[in-house]
Each structure stands twice: as structure tokens, then as C-alpha cells.
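Hi everyone, sorry if this is the wrong subforum. Our group has a chain we'd like a structural model of before ordering constructs, and none of us has done structure prediction before. Sequence below.
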Amino acid sequence: MRRTGIHTIGLLFLFSTGLLDTAQARQETGNNGNNVDATIRHLISAVDSERISKHLFYLAKDPLPYRKLNLTMPGHEKNTLYEADYLAGKLEAWGYHVEQEGVRVQAFRRDTSKPKHAQYSPPKPEDPWYTAYNLYAERKW
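Answer:
Right subforum, don't worry. Here is the predicted structure as C-alpha cells:
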């Protein structure tokens, strides 16, 4: 879960700064240290902290304790990952063409006989299958 949060923050940071600015800055700076410092300052100033907070709080707020394919809250129709999945809609609103690829997956089992950091074990054949979605976003300039 923590790793997912870190990846989410990274994605939000990239979207806030603008991918095009980063690519242009790399081409302009070369190996000159002063230009690199100026570019970094420019990128930091371009971060929209209000936008990051809005999206981060949306992903972290209750009543969804986890973003998982194999957890559906009582009285809900969709699992918590599908309920929280709004990234595709945001990308489309920002001008990206988004394609979704469904992938069948099984959840790992938990083996409490192992140390806490290593309690994952492979699923059994009779465990349920879920459909996760890979998102492919492309923006035509």
C-alpha cells in the first residue's frame, strides 16, 4: 500500500509540473550546472501544490481504507480499487487519449508462519480471478 502511495504521489508530481517542460529543460541544459539549477528551480516553482493536495486527499480519504481488487465494502457494488480509480478520467480531461487493457490477476495469499515482511505466498488455483486495468495514456502535441 505504501509503495502505491509513493507511485501515486510521483504521478501527481509529474502531471503537476508538466512532462513537456521536463523534456525541453533536458535538451536546453546539456551539462551546464547553472542551467540545471535554474531548470530545477523552474520545475519546483511550476508545481501546483493545491492540485497535488486535492488529488492526494481524494485518494487517501475515507471511507475506502484500501485500494484493492479483492475488497468490496459492505453495501457497495464495486471493489475499492474501482471506486477510487479516477485517474483515467483525469487524464482524459487533461487532453490525453487513454486506452485500458484488462489483465486477469489473482491476489497473493498471506502466510502468517513467515516474518511479517515476507508473508506473501502464491495464490492457489481455486482462488478467485480479478480484472485489473493497465492504462496507456498518450497526448498528441
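For your construct planning: The helical segments are 2-17, 19-29, 33-46, 49-60, 80-84, 87-93. DSSP finds six helices and four strands in the chain.
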